[in-house]
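SEVERITY: medium
COMPONENT: batch folding queue
REPORTER: lab tech (J.R.)

DESCRIPTION
The queue accepted two submissions in a row. Attaching both inputs and their returned structure tokens so the on-call engineer can compare them side by side.

ATTACHMENT 1
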Amino acid sequence: MQRILSTLRNGLHTYRYDLIALTIMLSCIFVYAYPLFSSGMVVFSDIAFGLSSDRYIEEIFGAWNERWSTTTLLNVPRLVFIAPLYGLSLLFGASGPLLIKSFILTLLIVSALSMYALVKRLHSIYITKHFQLMTLMTFTLAGLFYALNPWIITRIQHIYLLCGYALFPFALLLFFNLFDPKFRRQLDPDFSFSKRLSPRIWIDAIGLSVVFMFMSTGIHYFFFYHLYGHHARADCAQNALDRAEDAIVQIIFLLLRSPHHSGRVRVHFIQRLLVLYVCRFHPVRGAGIPT
């Protein structure tokens, strides 16, 4: 018992600044989302949540959607994401309004936490592993900007597209943990590509797979994009990735302005980031640069 209390006490001391920053961040999100706590139903464009959560779950559970006469196979990942929220709605009489409101609030919180985790990891890799309260407050602002920007609010109509958007920074974090030597060596000082996979690599690999599973709740946008090009809903998928990439790159540039970061390392990292950003994310803009 004393060991557990000691471990808990040490953990609280180590992450005391994180607790303060995250408390402030979550408080801002709850204040921003205050209208969701009032009575009524959220109705906006393509949102198709009924007054009963049971009526909605019928459209994503099973092999065939009798209402729309279409297969539900592309909607199966939605069931994974929404199942806990559906269970919560059952405690309140299968409330449809509770389902959609809790879904929106969850996406906002996950978006902020995901960006917070990514930016903190980047700071620990390229600047310093020691964090002051004001540094963590900067990460809080990054998370709030990523979660509460106007583009997100207007895209609530395509709510499953936001599932991928919310987890995009976390997917990047796990990807870097797996394949970037600097990230790997911080987690495992004895890391080498020639060695057998360590338990931590398996954890990150499985974690990345799980994250992609949750992100696939909007996988139908992928097919729309390739079937119809840049028309109608296909733009939603591309715009979501563009906004996420732009936000991440801008936040990284802000972090690199830190006085603790050496000039040579800063310039080198910015050059690599620009090549990656221009050539990979925006091939049209980087057409003159070989990829």
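ATTACHMENT 2
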Amino acid sequence: MIHSSENRNPVRAVRLCAGILLVALVIAVAPGLPAKGAQAPVALARGISVMLAPAVIEAELTRFLWHADTAAGAIAITNFASVSLSVNVKTYGVEHDANGHIDAMTVSTEESKALRVSPAAFVLKPGGSASVKLTVDPAYAADRAKNSLLAAVSFATRPAIQARAGSYIAAESVFVAPVMLRFSGKWVRKISVVGVQATGGGDGSSPTLMVTVRNDGNTYARASAVLSHRMPGMKTATELPVPSGVVFPGKVRVLEANLKDTRMPTGRWAAEVRLYADGVACAGVQCMMEVAASGEVRVSEVKLASLPQP
């Protein structure tokens, strides 16, 4: 869920928070996507408190012969405020940067226009809930050239009461949930490694491995990786999972792993990074990791390798 308590146009870009998002009287911004099916926790804005569930819509829609599934799911919005809220629902495009920040775009896209919401406007009483259904335009869903639909659903809320002289009325608040849909068909998960590097460790900070990946496929994918490393002559390698991240088609994403707990002693370590797209191995990297006496970690002699794409 994305929240803003400022007076602003709801089409302004706002950012999605990963995991637990706590917003109290101010706007909060953090990277990533909430877990699939997760609830977006209550966000407070001077008397306005709203919860969206789920915080992100992700679904795979089927196509069979002339039939195409168009039901994308529903988002429930609950009003925990002490006043009724006027709610307006719209759709916009989405994008993400290399760090995984999910942004609602300032304009509509072909994909967001194909996503329909119902109802689009309503009043929510204190303690009340409403379910907003999401459907895909049948022509878009049936188009075999379309493999996915990426959009954002914006809930703009405002107290549905008249302001009395000298009283305070909260500004419009915007809550946004991303929508990621895939249609059955021939998906191309073409994820590749762009580069590998390590930072930190020399100034007391935790060393971090950064794996930059690119999605040249025709649908979004969850990229993840596993780092295995060992000193020359050692038979057993130590493995470290690299947290996954969603990568949109045509986008670059940096996956990061904290090396603090690997306890690598000073020296040169032979390392390998195995990349996965939706859990299927698709690429690999061989390199040397050099650990200085100061604790600084560097990566050298990088050799990229590709595997048959799933």
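NOTES FROM REPORTER
Helices lie at 110-114, 138-142.
No errors were logged for either attachment.
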